[in-house]
Amino acid sequence: MSLQAWRGLALWCLTALMIAAGDVRAEDLVIPGSGNPEHLLKQMAKAFNARQSQHRVLVPPSSGTAGALRDVGEGVSTLGRVGRPLKEEERARGFSFLSLGRDPIVLVGGAAVTARNISAQQVIDIYTGKLLNWEQLGGKSAPIRAIGREPSDASRQALQKVIPAFRDIAFGSNVKIAHLDPHLLELLDRYPSSLGFINRSALAACRTAVVPLAFDGVAPTPENLEKGIYPLWIEFGLIYRTSTGMSPAAKAFVEFVRSSEGQRMLGQHGILPTR
Q1: Angle at which helices 260-268 and 38-51 cross, to 10°
Q2: How far is CA 227 from the centre of its chain?
Q3: 22-37: per-residue pLDDT in tens?
Q4: DSSP secondary structure string, 202-243?
Q5: What is the pLDDT of residue 140?
Q6: Which pLDDT score, from 0 to 100, does residue 3 have?
Q7: Based on the number of CB atoms within 10 Å of its own CB, is 71 exposed (0-12), middle (13-18) or buried (19 or more)?
Q8: Are 81 and 160 in contact, with CB atoms under 8 Å apart?
């Protein structure tokens, strides 16, 4: 059985177990998909579940944007989470996109990293294996444990827009590939001298004090993103099937996200409204 099939089966089993246990509300809404908004949506689901008892929202571990497209497309879930806006061909397949906002993409070091800035050229040199020690970036001597992502990853695609040469580089032997965002966060926690890239709000799930780096001298803050001086960011959101629309629970959760409380939570996580 393929990995995707296992994930779909796991999602079905989760719902079946809740039904068997008699722990089902008017609707249990499972929102599968990308790891980029996973931490944020878990916090929003917790707040939504606490303020009403008619529905319950569950945010399972990441299955990637591809997992959201698969599960929503197959009718396993009525709402999914994605790390980027939909492509034209995905809209043509009948998906609709609801933006949650923009989030800075951060080049981030592990807790032991003392460097505070990284340049576009240094990013290229690290991931091609030319720079191997943090001392070469002005920090204390320590091996750079670089963590890469696959080409379809939303964070990598954001990086490639700003550093075109990153699109076609061959990762050096020093680079370990993380296929899902939780795996990347786990590696950042495990290796104090590591380097990775991910959206800023997701870093709240780290257990250690990881170090966001300035990019070409500009700090990766929501304020700098809003000013237009920080260039790395993604726009993530929710998807549903256009033909069937959203279920009652999905509509209720989206209304919560759009409410003043939901917008306040987005702001607290550093998410900027989409222009």
Answers
A1: 150
A2: 22
A3: 444 578 999 999 999 9
A4: GGGG-SS--EEPEETTB---HHHHHHT----EEEEEEEEETT
A5: 97
A6: 46
A7: buried
A8: no
Contacts of 247 (CB under 8 A, 6+ apart): 27, 29, 78, 79
User: Based on the number of CB atoms within 10 Å of its own CB, is 2 exposed (0-12), middle (13-18) or buried (19 or more)?
Assistant: exposed
Collapsing DSSP states into helix, strand and coil, what is residue 148? strand
pLDDT for res 19: 45
- Would you call 14 exposed, middle or buried from its count of C-beta atoms within 10 A (0-12, 13-18, 19+)? middle
What is d(CA 35, CA 183) in angstroms, rounded to the nearest whole number?
Answer: 10
Stated pTM of the model: 0.86
Contacts of 35 (CB under 8 A, 6+ apart): 62, 64, 83, 180, 181, 182, 202
